[in-house]
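Design job #97: recover the sequence.
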């Protein structure tokens, strides 16, 4: 199974390409804004508050979320790393994000899937999406 992560606009010879960054209609965009790159929204405030109160985060991760709340944004690597907790929460129930990951997992059983975001090759939330797709895809039956 081939699932790659690349920069927006990277060409691919075959397979399905999906933009998973902020905007452009992607439900898989990271709602945690990067300082100077994206704006603080009510969704960002809600997810940051969730992270501050989440029991499964390390002390450092709690501190990063608290700083982001005061600065109204995350450092680039922090936003990418903390997205793992956001994606896990989003995939616990039937959400647009879970349905998108399941759709991409089904596509991955049929051929290459290429995830694209503006921040790659810097730390990117796409790596967590890739891991989730792989996990779900391994549980799906393979096409004959």
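Job complete. Output follows.
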């Amino acid at each position: 199974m081939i699932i790659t992560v690349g920069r927006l606009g990277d060409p691919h010879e075959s397979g399905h390409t999906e933009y998973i960054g902020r905007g452009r209609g992607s439900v898989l965009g990271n709602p945690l804004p990067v300082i100077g790159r994206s704006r603080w929204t009510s969704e960002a405030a809600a997810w940051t508050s969730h992270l501050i109160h989440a029991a499964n985060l390390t002390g450092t991760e709690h501190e990063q979320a608290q700083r982001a709340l005061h600065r109204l944004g995350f450092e680039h690597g922090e936003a990418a790393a903390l997205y793992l907790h956001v994606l896990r929460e989003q995939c616990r129930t039937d959400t647009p994000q879970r349905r998108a990951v399941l759709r991409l997992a089904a596509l991955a059983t049929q051929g290459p899937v290429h995830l694209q975001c503006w921040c790659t090759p810097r730390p990117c939330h796409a790596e967590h999406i890739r891991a989730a797709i792989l996990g779900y895809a391994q549980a799906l039956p393979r096409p004959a």
